[in-house]
Amino acid sequence: MGLVQRIVEEAGIPTISLTLLPFITRKVKVPRALAIEFPFGHPFGKPFDNEQQLSIINDGLRELESIQEAGTILDLPYKWPEEDFKKQDWWPEEHPPIVKFMQEQLAKKNKK
Amino acid sequence: MIDGFKFCPPGLPDRLQQMKFVEHEDIPWAPVNKKIEDCKFAILSTAGISMKGDVPFDMEREYKEPTWGDPTFRVIPKDAKQADLEVNHLHINTRDIEKDFNCAFPLDRFKELEEQGRIGSFAENNYSIMGYLPTPHTGELIKGTAPAIADKMKADGVDAAFMAPV
User: What integer is the mean pLDDT of B85-100?
Assistant: First the structure.
């Protein structure tokens, strides 16, 4: 997504993004980003938590105005509740095809 | 400092460290020339969201070709309702987005901000891509999809864009 953000910004439209993997965002390099410690699929938090969703958007609106240096990645303070972390329920129901593919490749290699 | 790997499965951080990303030295910059209260916003998600009836993101091909990911985009009108949308992304659990798309693609919250006057306006057209795009296939995203999205935003008079990966 960082690639799209860069191209939209290059076209003259200022952009801000959230990131769940700041490690990647730092490599791709985007003008403005906010890192948030939430599980995949939930950049704006929990479903139906309208207040938190709005709060995160408002952080973005504020930082869009205040960030002055290209490449800035700020950390947002939100925490995923510990009891929900234990549920580990953000994984897809089945492994993505690439995981199965890599496991098969590995199995073939080990057979040789 | 946040833990950027907290939600990764064991092994993924190492794989990510070894993975090739399109890296850059330069960083584009477009200044914000208006007050947020006067800006027209559009949003973009990588969740693989499409309108029912539109062509969904192509999961069939990804099943057959696991190193390929659909590089196209879909336009989602701001008034889309939960029942209008479907989500196709094999690398995340889409359950919560299927209950309330606002946790990844907050159309309803942006409409509220528009009503409250916190933002100038909210664009009619918003966007989804599907975030799994292995590096050999990013060409179409860079040459086709992203410029097309930027052109559409410009044609709509969008002043600023808020983007969120999943």
Answer: 97
Model pLDDT for residues A6-52, shown as the tens digit of each residue = 999 999 999 999 999 999 899 999 999 999 999 999 999 999 999 99
Query: Chain A closest CA to B118's CA: distance in Å?
Result: 9
Q: CA triplet A68, A69, A71: central angle to 5 degrees?
A: 135
Contact B109 A50 (CB under 8 A): yes
Q: List the one residue out of B78, B142, B151, B69 whose CA is nearest residue B110.
A: B78
Its ipTM equals 0.95
Distance in angstroms (rounded) separating the CA atoms of residues B59 and A26: 29
* Residues paired with B76 in a beta bridge: B126
User: A24: Cβ–Cβ under 8 A, 6 or more apart, which residues?
Assistant: A2, B16, B21
The Cα angle at residue A84 between residues A45 and A49, in degrees rounded to 5: 30
Q: B29, exposed or middle or buried, with CB in 10 Å at 0-12, 13-18, 19+?
A: middle
Q: Is the pLDDT of residue B113 over 90?
A: yes
Residues of B in contact with A61 (CB under 8 A): 36, 113, 118-119, 162
Query: CA A1, CA A33: separation in Å to the nearest integer?
Result: 12
Q: Which of B131, B151, B161, B147 is nearest to B43 (CA)?
A: B161
Instruction: Look at residue B13 and tell me whether its pLDDT is greater than 90.
Output: no
